[in-house]
Design a protein that fits this description.
alpha/beta, Rossmann fold, three-stranded parallel beta sheet, three-stranded antiparallel beta sheet, 11% strand, disordered C terminus
Length: 268
Amino acid sequence: MDRKGLSLRELRRNMQIVFQDSDSSLNPRLSIVDSIGYGPRVHGMRRAEARTLAHDLLQRVGLDPALFASRYPHELSGGQKQRVNIARALALDPRMVILDEAVSALDKSIAAQVLNLLRHLKQTLKLTYVFISHDLNVVRYVSDRMLVMYLGQVVEIGLTDAIYREPKHPYTKALLESRLATDPRQRVETAPLADDPPNPVDPPSGCRFRTRCPFAEDICAIKPPPLGGSGHHAAHLVACHMDNPQSGHSRARMGPVPLRRAADAVGC
């Protein structure tokens, strides 16, 4: 037991993860029922109880235990394997589930089914998700709060709807502008971001986004912008000198930059 009252064993039990590659995440030598029941057995559950739990979880994730419990990973499709991985993550009754690009390797129709399953499980089991994804449409569908990172640092965090409605960081604006639309008339003809990202091993001084930002000034190279907010935006935090009236940036008192203007400037 550590000084904060939570042992490493308990921490592992309360934090489970679903990986991107559903195939390599499963042991090919274990049947599906044994894969799901493995964690509970390690934590002291009897074999019969673990198998019963595995059957219940298979039912919960939409797989008939009579058909899938005795199968092996090579007998399942990608979507079925990911459902098994979700069931395995839930087997220890965790408080938080980390999903690392959990649907990016799936076909869109299968990904939609898995996303609907995740939303249902979150509501019924009162789960907390940390959902890692590059697909902004998926992020909006799943997440209540959103955190945007660039070169390993947080640049914006807040309620998902608030960020999609009024993005404040130039990088977030460019990301949202780069989303593909189903309407062929809404084409992205100019890349919202130009140039390649810097080497993350040797990032730029100051603001790490400044080498690709159309609004970069001297202060951006000198001082890293703190993550903060002001007024009624206190729950919506951004790391940008343009959002800080005391930063010395010429645009700091001009309010939020329109999304289209930011994207056009980057593409010039």
